[in-house]
Amino acid sequence: MNKDDIRAQVRARKAMLDNDERIGAAKRVFDTLCSMAAFTLAEKVLVYHSLPDELSTHEFLGEWEARKQFFLPRVNGLDLEILPYSRTHTHLGAFRIEEPDGDDTTDIANIDLIIVPAVAYDRFGNRVGRGKGYYDRLLARAKAITIGVCYDFQLLDDEIDADEHDIPVDFVIADKHGIIRRRRK
Q: Are 170 and 127 contacting, i.e. CB atoms less than 8 angstroms apart?
């Protein structure tokens, strides 16, 4: 299945979720994430501010923002820049995603853990994004542990055809499958 077909299939499946399923899945995924040593030890965590069709990060951010230093990405041309997160200092930015305000950018090399959004993942850590390559360019410069989070149906049994520039994640957490460590080829 090509990436456009995967995007269409996942979009259709997400449309079938009710609010209770969305809330329950996010709670299971982020409870699992919080039990990982990688999260416990991380001081600086890059996380995405979820869109309505993504696994919600809003409760997670609210629960942990006083105990972890969170960062959000902001679109700058063809790349993402990283800024500290504050619930009261965001605006609706590119692609109608909440982005941080200010000029206090942080080098991605200073981030300990990155929570990576995607449309779908496989067990090799490959991911299908929304098609613009922002996260691949960012992850190519990162040294942090990377964790993808998703609904179970976003974890594909078949290997995703990865292009040379695609950067896999180290772990995937699916809401009922738990933690999947990237298989090496």
A: no
Token match 């309505």: residue? 52
Sign of CA dihedral 94, 39, 11, 180: positive
Give the H/E segment covering residue 32.
helix 19-34
When pLDDT is cut at 50, 70 and 90, the band that residue 185 belongs to is low
Token pair 């997160």: residue: 85
Is the pLDDT at 180 greater than 70? The verdict is: yes
Give yes or no for a contact between 48 and 103, defined as CB atoms under 8 angstroms apart: no
Q: Which of 110, 112, 83 has the alpha carbon at shortest distance from 98? A: 83
Provide the mean pLDDT of the chain. Answer: 93
Rounded Cα distance between 107 and 93, Å, is: 20
pTM, to two decimals: 0.93
